[in-house]
Amino acid sequence: MAPPPATAAAAAAVRPHLLLRRGGGLLPSPHPAPATRAAAAGPARRLRLPPLRFSLSPVPKSLSSAASSHIPVRSLFTGIVEEVGRVRRLGPPLTPPSGGGGGGEAPGLDLEVETKTLLAGTQLGDSVAVDGTCLTVAAIDPAASTFTFGVAPETLRRTSLGERAAGDGVNLERALTPSSRMGGHFVQGHVDGTGEIAALRPDGDSLWVTVRAPPEILRLLVPKGFVAVDGTSLTVVSVDDEGGWFDFMLVRYTQDNIVLPNKKVGDKVNLEADILGKYVEKLLAGRVEAAANADS
C-alpha cells in the first residue's frame, strides 16, 4: 500500500550496531542493522561479556542511559482479545482514597467497564488488559456486570485511556493462566507509547491499517514480527522508519471482535512492542558500550 506522507515529527529510527568478529575480536559494525539479526551474535557466553541487569520497563530514549525504572512482570497476556467491553464511567473516584496522594499532582481516575462474560472467575486484585493496558480490578459489581479499575496519572500520560468516554468500546483480556493456549505472543500490558491511525483501507473483506509511531517504538518493529495495538496481538507487515509508520492487516474475524475497526484516521492507539526486541536492543547497547570502554 502507499505509505502515508512523511511528517517532520516522524524521524528516522536509530538502531544499535551489531557486533562482528574481526581478527578474533569483537568490534561494533559500522553499518546499522535490524534488531532481528541479533541472533547472529550467538549465545551470551560465547561473547564473554559481563553479566547485565535487565529491566522490563520501556526502553529508554538513550541507549547508553543507565537510569531506568524497574517494572516487575506481574501478569502476561496473549493479545487475543476475549471481549469488547463498554465504558460506563471515567472520572474521579466516587470514594476518596484514604491517606491521599498529595504533592499537587492531578489525581488518577476510576474506569468502570461493563462486561458480559469476564466476571466469572475474576476476583479483586486480578489483572485485566484494557485496550492493552494492564490494570488491577479494584471493584466488582455483579448486579451491574461491571469492573472498576484505578487509572494512575502516569498511565493516563502514557496511554490513550484518558480519552475514553461513556459508551466507548474497549478490548478486554484477562491475564494468562498456565493452561491457556498461546494464540498470540507475550504481552505485558506495559504500554510503550501511543501511535496515530494514519490510514484505513479495505482489501476484500480484510482491512489494512497504517499507524504512525515514534522512532523509539518503530525501531523495535520488524516485518512479520509482533506488535500489540490496543492490546491486540498483530503481525507487522511493513515498517517505514523514514516515513515513521508501520502497517498490518485485520482479517474479518479480528475486525468483528476488537474495537480498532470502529476508530477513524487520527485516533490514538496504545502500542506495545515485543519484549524480545527490547531485550535484544539492550543486549546490543551493552556490547557497544563495553567495546567503546575497552578501546578508550
Automatic annotation (TrEMBL):
All copies of domain Lumazine-binding, residue ranges: 76-185, 186-284
User: Which Gene3D superfamilies is this protein grouped with?
Assistant: 2.40.30.20
Q: Which CDD domains match?
A: Riboflavin_synthase_like
Q: Which Pfam families match?
A: Lum_binding (PF00677)
| EC id | 2.5.1.9
**Matching SUPFAM superfamilies, A to Z?**
Riboflavin synthase domain-like
Keywords tagged on the record: Repeat, Riboflavin biosynthesis, Transferase
Q: Name the enzyme group at the top EC level.
A: transferase
Kindly tell me the pathway this chain contributes to.
Cofactor biosynthesis; riboflavin biosynthesis; riboflavin from 2-hydroxy-3-oxobutyl phosphate and 5-amino-6-(D-ribitylamino)uracil: step 2/2
**What this chain does, per the record?**
Catalyzes the dismutation of two molecules of 6,7-dimethyl-8-ribityllumazine, resulting in the formation of riboflavin and 5-amino-6-(D-ribitylamino)uracil.
Kindly give the PANTHER family that the UniProt entry links to this protein. RIBOFLAVIN SYNTHASE, RIBOFLAVIN SYNTHASE ALPHA CHAIN
In Swiss-Prot or TrEMBL terms, this protein is called Riboflavin synthase
Species of origin reads Urochloa decumbens
